[in-house]
Amino acid sequence: MDHKNDSDPTCPFCPFSDPGISRVVEHVDVYHPEVDTQAGHSRRPANAPSTGTGECSGDYTECPHGCGEIVLNTELSAHLDLHFAETVALDDISSCQPELPVDMESAVSSHDAERQEWLERGTPGLLPSEDRTLSSWSLIGGTKTPHNGRAKRLGRTELGPHAHEKQMPSWLRRMLERGSMSIFTNTIAVDGTLRRREAVENETRDVIPVLARLCEQDKSVQRAFFCSPKVHQISKIPKEGGFCGYRNIQMLITYMKETQLPGHERFPRELPTIFQLQDMIEDAWDNGFNSVGRVETGGIRGTRKYIGTPEAQALFSSLGIQCEANSIGASKEVRAHDALYMNVAAYFRGSCALEEGHKVMQTNLPPIYFQHQGHSMTIIGFEIRDGGSANILVFDPMFRTPPAVKRLRGPQALTSDPARVLKVYRRGTAYLQKYKVFELLNSLAYDVKRASQWA
């Protein structure tokens, strides 16, 4: 190994050094994305303050699992734990394993009993204590109007490690243009005919009915709610990196296409690609929808810059698809993650008759675009556990559909350990309490009267 030379360029934030200045610059871009010389305000999500472990350290590392994510060293263990959960197969689950207790992720709370009472009897809608504004911008009819001041160019804290790149690397562009691998299978239909079915490598249908059955089977679950079973689970392809926002938009579009909601005709064929979604967002800015986004990002076409709730809302609003964005934070009475639980519970409970007494309630509601600092997911459900603890249930594009879930899609398929299969879909207090602000984007283009059915 070469010896360090005192004259070598060094990183200003850690002991790293290299004879090549370009290597040092690349190191800073990748491992210290929270340090930026340009003034900017928080955008992922908007108005997010410092988020506990998320912004206090410059110690980043690339996920050794190969997903392409760059994560904080302090969060690497939890990240790898979810990677392990996504690989669980039925063969890995022993029939003699005891039922798992409520996991630590969903049990870290000192107000569980009080929260359960609210979740059971609360009224639908936003909590009075919630902040309905997104950053210093008011969202009216899908456009942003500044309250004061000028929009500023954002940096790496908000847009990710590649905030200032002009174009993504050519190898990544080629990989994304190729897209996911399609797998063709032959199945026998009910009428006895042979049908050929195409399955996309990173897209899985019929996951929500499996999760509903697992929640029914899990003795630690008191009550669970799910959105429409027609939502597809979509994950990133290996090595693509930080395109979670685009993958979540694709999941919302699968719901629109499957249910033929107003606006589905905008997506007549296969799902739009990442590049097509970038074009649609840029077109939305051109037409005045959240157009400040172009100033803040410097443009996203052909780049790896992070997108968030404002871009998703701009895209859907520009296509005439009604949606509503809300920012959720802490108040004197309610912590941010508890406010999130209450909001999501109210969303699902508003279409259900709780007196029916069903443990698992399957609705036809749209999924929810969910954002916190640095990452976004798609909320597909909510559950209340023993003792009043709660989880949101998500499709996280960072993780693939576990093999066990694919094998459980048969109507009679069961497992002896539902909690283990559900782990990759659950986000509880231990995860959520690290963040001070959350954003939700709800579609308004659905019929509430038709939104309820039971599993």
UniProtKB/TrEMBL annotation:
Region (Disordered): 34-57
Keywords per UniProt: Hydrolase
InterPro entries noted in UniProt: UFSP1/2_DUB_cat
Source superkingdom: Eukaryota
Metal-binding is among the record's keywords: no
Residue ranges of domain UFSP1/2/DUB catalytic in the record: 221-441
Pfam families: Peptidase_C78 (PF07910)
GO molecular function ontology, one term from the record: hydrolase activity
Signal peptide: none
Protein name in UniProt: Zinc finger with UFM1-specific peptidase domain protein
Native organism: Aspergillus awamori (Black koji mold)
Source organism phylogeny: Eukaryota, Fungi, Dikarya, Ascomycota, Pezizomycotina
